[in-house]
Amino acid sequence: MLRNIKMPLPDLMASVLTLDDSIVDGDQVDYLIKFCPTKEEMELLKSYTGSKENLGKCEQFFLEMMKVPRVESKLRILSFKIKFLTQVADVKNNLNTINDVAEEVRNSDKLKRVMQTILSLGNALNQGTARGSAVGFRLDSLLKLIDIRARNNKMTLMHYLCKVLAGKLPEVLDFVKDLAHLEPATKIQLKDLAEEMQAITKGLEKVEQELATSEKDGPVSETFYKKLKEFLADAQAEGRSLASLYSTAGKSADSLAHYFGEDPVRCPFEQVVSTLLSFVKTFERAHAENLRQVEAEKKKAQMEAEREKAKAAAAHKKAGSPEPGVSDR
Q1: Helices (H), strands (E): how many in the chain?
Q2: Distance between CA atoms of 312 and 321, rounded to whole angstroms?
């Protein structure tokens, strides 16, 4: 265990008492936390009256750690401090992504026109039935477009949609460019964000508790107390800002479901963005296949035209040639 600690333990403990994260990183601190002495081990060492040199390296290590009041608590505080800004930045980035994707979807006129075209096609297909005058459709219907085929089985409804848009509204074919944050949003789990927020809140509560206790430690924790007080003031301000952003992102996530006429409970944020991304990828694939088909048909038509031209030229040449066996007189 001690082999993994490269710097003198007194220096490490000094960094704990000064909350100095310039000479230790989070992994080192977490490693130390794992090997903090238990209450029983501390009691045994407190009652030891012999020479320190007679103890093993592990016991000497424990003695050094015991010079710091509530060493495990302070190590956990230092670990929290080291990771705090990165943790907050990661959560902020995800919350901003939620806000961004919700805004992009709501503000994309191209996506809106694609959805309107899908509704029109659906109503045309269902003409004469109760579903032939629908004013909307379920979000998961987007995933069924690739499964619905024409009677001749040659074209899916997704391919037909792409063909219609290419002919009538070619300017909306690149609607995916409006949704820059859609793919990153599919990697976000609201449950994970809630757990991260809870961890930050609990971490700040523990900082408050340790601050109150350290004030009574006397000179040994004087610097620790001062530095921790400064950190707590800044961290609480960050926490309040993050809580506000979290609340906004929660509303944005719900608004995304509402935008498609869905209930956020039945169709949560994760389902909305994953469905949209699947639709986008299937749409792009179908459009690319349509383009290849058009190109193949063009080449086929060109080859057919060239063959007809060659046939006509050969026939013309044959018609203008003298008959075999006939000579000039």
Answers
A1: 11, 0
A2: 14
> What pLDDT score does 257 carry?
95
CB-count burial class (<10 Å; 0-12, 13-18, 19+) for 118: buried
The closest alpha carbon to 278, from 143, 80, 151, 134, belongs to 143
Q: Which two tokens mark 317?
A: 């040449």
The C-alpha torsion from 212 through 215 and 216 to 219, rounded to 10°, is: 160
As beta bridge partners, residue 149 has 156
CATH number of 2-35+69-101+184-259: 3.40.50.2000, 3.40.50.720, 2.40.10.220, 1.20.58.2220?
1.20.58.2220
Q: Cα separation of 171 and 178, whole Å?
A: 12
Q: pLDDT tens digits, residue range 104-120? A: 999 999 999 999 999 99
Amino acid at 309: K
